[in-house]
TrEMBL record:
The keyword Signal is annotated on this UniProt entry: yes
Signal peptide: 1-25
Keyword list, A-Z: Signal
Classification of source organism: Bacteria, Pseudomonadati, Planctomycetota, Planctomycetia, Pirellulales
Native organism: Stieleria varia
Name of the protein this chain belongs to: Secreted protein
Keyword Signal: yes
Highest taxon above the source species: Bacteria
C-alpha cells in the first residue's frame, strides 16, 4: 500500500510540474531582426553580370 501511495504522489507531482515548467515566467521575448546592410556590388571592379558569369563557370567545373 505504501508503494502505491508513493507512486501516485510521484506521478501527481510530475503531472503538476509539467504544466508549470521549470521556473519560466511564461513571458516570451521577441527579438528584432538584424539590421540590413545596403546592397553592395558583388565584387569590386566587376559588374553583376560578370560576377554571375564567373560563378556559373566555377559551378560547371
Amino acid at each position: 500500500m505504501r508503494k502505491i501511495s508513493l507512486l501516485l504522489m510521484t506521478a501527481s507531482c510530475c503531472f503538476v510540474l509539467s504544466f508549470s515548467g521549470c521556473g519560466s515566467s511564461g513571458n516570451t521575448v521577441v527579438e528584432a531582426p538584424p539590421e540590413v546592410v545596403e546592397d553592395q556590388p558583388a565584387m569590386e571592379g566587376m559588374t553583376d553580370e560578370e560576377y554571375n558569369k564567373a560563378m556559373e563557370a566555377d559551378m560547371r567545373q
